[in-house]
Amino acid sequence: MSSDSNKEYDGYDFETLAVRAGQVRTHEGEHSEAIFTTSSFAFASAAEAAARFSGDVPGNIYSRFTNPTVRTFQDRLAALEGGEACVATSSGMAAILATCMGLLQQGDHVVSSRSVFGTTTVLFDRYLRRFGIEVDFVPQTDLEAWQAAVRPNTRMLFVETPSNPLTEIVDIAALADIAHRGDALLVVDNCFCTPALQRPLALGADIVVHSATKYLDGQGRAVGGAVVGDAERVGKEVFGVLRTAGPTMSPFNAWIFLKGLETLGLRMQAHSAHAQKLAEWLEAQPSVARVHYPGLASHPQHALATRQQRGYGGIVSFEVKGGQAAAWRVIDATRMISITANLGDAKTTITHPATTTHGRLSIEQRAETGIADGLLRVAVGLESADDIIADLARGLG
Ligand SMILES: *Cc1c(COP(=O)(O)O)cnc(C)c1O
């Protein structure tokens, strides 16, 4: 849980917070943040132990829920997202699960975009239902459908913007209004933009969740997640789930993500610049039927993206003419780009959604969500944009 150690950074810019927020030096005077690999913490006396356990005195107890390296990461991410509290988790999915466990109960109803991460759909559709929580899925950009799906017992609206892989963008402020007109919270998965490009809490969202595995790390090294929001819901309720159920981030992984945050702003600018160049090039290729990238004037929500985001991000998807065979040809002709479904890495990755990440969907579901057989998703990395383009050009003849 976030502490008061960010107070001294009030008023600093994003770039400064990304490098410095949350750090508390020990008596050793270390300049880089220390990794506290300890499961528990010792107390000076029985009375101190009792005061810590009761919560009367703040401080470390046990690394399932209090660890200085993890706390530094939490405080830094809270500062970057503009939230009062942050809880770090063992994965992005654990962040979403902990949010649901902390803020929902049997009989509640959730409205989710149908374009969320596939595993999130499974978590909602299969597992939440088992515990008596109903979920409806609506088209990402159709605000009327969101409004129509809200019921008296709707407690949560869940969205990811831009979506994967089609980069559909929803108006966060408008969705927050729909949630708050009822008795619901708006939860935004801010994985694709990160706080460097988009700050959902400032737009009216209540909770931000992250897969730290992606851009927060930025180099494909570790799996982790986080929940950011206010002191009551995140600092108490979600933290309570973490403390009790234990989907905890390890201190070593927290340190990796902490170091990732220091370069987040620079990396997101570079990912966005390379993706823009690639998207513009793809749009000019005769063998490409359609390009999905919020930075293109042809993107249906280009104006909204420009207003809502500080950059367009690193994910580009495009549909080649000739269906699956043509799409696979592009993948198999690459020499440098990695064939893997991960994203948010310095290394560019390419994937064929219809037969990988979205392969579990029926043909009808894929048609509904626009996952065509010729669709490819590229998570544009930090290599030279010209080399990335040349690698894709090989199979696009
Ligand atoms: C990867 C991902 C997740 C899940 O995160 P893990 O760290 O893999 O558990 C959730 N949301 C989005 C948008 C993702 O890309």
From TrEMBL:
The modification N6-(pyridoxal phosphate)lysine is found at residue 214. Pfam families: Cys_Met_Meta_PP (PF01053). It is an enzyme of class 2 (transferase). It catalyses: O-succinyl-L-homoserine + hydrogen sulfide = L-homocysteine + succinate. Pathway: Amino-acid biosynthesis; L-methionine biosynthesis via de novo pathway; L-homocysteine from O-succinyl-L-homoserine: step 1/1. Transmembrane segments: none annotated. One of its GO terms (molecular function) is transferase activity, transferring alkyl or aryl (other than methyl) groups. Its EC number is 2.5.1.-. GO terms for cellular component: cytoplasm. CDD domains: CGS_like (cd00614). One of its GO terms (biological process) is transsulfuration. Its cofactor is pyridoxal 5'-phosphate. Keywords: Amino-acid biosynthesis, Methionine biosynthesis, Pyridoxal phosphate, Transferase. InterPro entries: Cys/Met-Metab_PyrdxlP-dep_enz, Cys_met_metab_PP, O-succ-hSer_sulfhydrylase, PyrdxlP-dep_Trfase, PyrdxlP-dep_Trfase_major, PyrdxlP-dep_Trfase_small. Catalyzes the formation of L-homocysteine from O-succinyl-L-homoserine (OSHS) and hydrogen sulfide. Homotetramer. Belongs to the trans-sulfuration enzymes family. MetZ subfamily. This is O-succinylhomoserine sulfhydrylase. It comes from Acidihalobacter prosperus. The gene is metZ.
